[in-house]
Model the fold of this input.
Amino acid sequence: MRKFINIADINKKDLRLIINNAKSRKDKRSGLNKNAIDPDAPLDGKILIMIFEKPSTRTRISFDIAVKQLGGKSLILNPDEIHYGTGNESLYDTAKILSQYADVVMLRTNAHKYAEQFSKYLDVPLINGLTDLSHPCQIMSDIMTFEELKGPIKNKKIAWLGDGNNIVYSLIEAAVQFDFELSIASPKSYEPNKNILQWAKKNNGNVLLTKDPLKAASDADCIMTDKWISMGEKINKNKKKKALKPYQVNKKIMNVANKDAIFMHCLPASRGEEVTNEVIDGRQSAVWLEALNRIHAQKSIIEWCLK
Ligand code: CP
Ligand code: NVA
Done:
């Protein structure tokens, strides 16, 4: 049974198929209404159950629309309203119950380990909707968005500026799997974990870590960033923001990137912190398309899971 938890665990051929199928389904829908069902309705009679342990706007809505467009149904569960996580029912039993009702489960949770464990107990595929270590659905839609605007991502240069968080972890995995160059600029103490960088090195990834934001951004085809403080992070926020200040994506950064480089951000954003209004609202920004493509990339991920 398939699961979509780590980009690193899925072979390159399948990842490419997922992106190509997402593009092709999106093209075929041209002219259809947002909630119209794709003519082949591959999810007819099927149901996706989603559990969110953290807030979400994009993931929640885009999965719901994705399932509708595929002809299926989705159900969103709030952990406070079910036995899951309260101690009233073990994770194992909850997984067995959901396996009776759902064809696919999507989970947004805190600990990555928890998602891995939950998927072992489930008898249906699990899709990772964000953990402390990853956000694979986001990065798949970012690859799709990049290619829609700039062509094949292979050998292109992507720069990440800022916090070494869950989004950049999935981006590092993608750099290896999709063969692009990734330059990461993060300050001391906020770099991505060494294990993930070592994994990339072992797998011949072209991933560079620097403290210099201008060096990372130089000649890049895409500049990416994310909030400096992630959901639920219990840290000294002021100290972290101070350390990350030089990594803000602003005009100066965009000016050293390629002239036609794009700017991407998974959103939500803290405007004025990791990115200026001028950049996020500027002509190079791809953030709204990125959010839209969550629907299309996730449709393809769901289809892949059910094959
Ligand atoms: N990018 C993203 O996953 O956004 P949400 O937290 O709104 O789902
Ligand atoms: N790094 C952010 C991503 C939100 C989509 C967080 O985990 O809060």
